[in-house]
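Researcher: I'm preparing a figure for a lab meeting and need a structural model of a single chain. I don't have an experimental structure, so a prediction will have to do for now. The sequence is pasted below. Please return the structure as tokens so I can convert it later.
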Amino acid sequence: MTTIRARAWELFDDIVESAPSRELSSWRAYEQQIFTVDPDYDTLRQLLAVPARLGATSQSGVPALALDVWIASELRRAGFNPDQVWPRPSPPRVLSQDITGFISSLPARLRKEANDHLASRGGSGRASANILGKHYVKQVDVVMSSWATGPELMISTKRMDSSFGKNAANRIEESYGDAKNLRSRHPQAALGFLYCLGASALDDEPETARWLIDLLGKLGREADAYDAVGLVIQETSSTLPDPTSEIDPAGPLEPGAVPDLTADSPDVTVHHHPRVTLHRGAVPGELDPGRFLSSMCNLVLDRTPINFHPEARARRRSAQ
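Model: Understood. Here is the structure written out token by token.
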């Protein structure tokens, strides 16, 4: 049997793997050596459509995971090591580059045994990226880290498709506290926050939407909090299931985790093909996702020695 989360990962992987931009550098250069990242919005639209295609509820974790997969794929397009960016492009989704490097160096027979043993212990994805902050451990959605460096980049994502007035304040308060917690222990890491808002908020609760967008902008101006904040406003042609409806029998998915492919749940099929529209014109310039990703990538390169991340530096240098 295939769980809804397992099917989502299959679709996510297929979308990213088949994206025409997958092998193309995302760096662009402008006057006075200003380098920016030009993200693939078409891939983002396809990833955001997956939860509706599968009828995935918010409890499944699939809607929020679509953002994580997109950010990770954009970091790889910018030239950062695929094994160092979590979630990784293949299971296990969270695993230190030091371990993957060691396994890759083994003779073929031992390499296969090591990979099989890792999978048998749940290495196919039960782990999540848990980062110790100043006061508590925080589960971070997208991370770039290794044993030698510690976290170099940490991005938290949130998605809200309904109940905006009821939940908006709580999500922002949580994010602000998480930023202070992580920043205090990791002052040199690039710290970001990407928020995905359902477009219905603009019409159904316009005052709440304006307040939320304004507050997101302010979150990115705090010197000791987030380095950058981004906003995605999306509209899906098919409405996501009511969060109070039947919960995915396999339970919630932790950010960065991979589903248990052996879970006892009904077979999952794609039953429709929704269309996702991104309302980019409603996003203020300071919250533009391209600006957000540009800040994150440039900060990582600016805050590390010149011999770190050689591929990302080469792609940035060759940008036109």
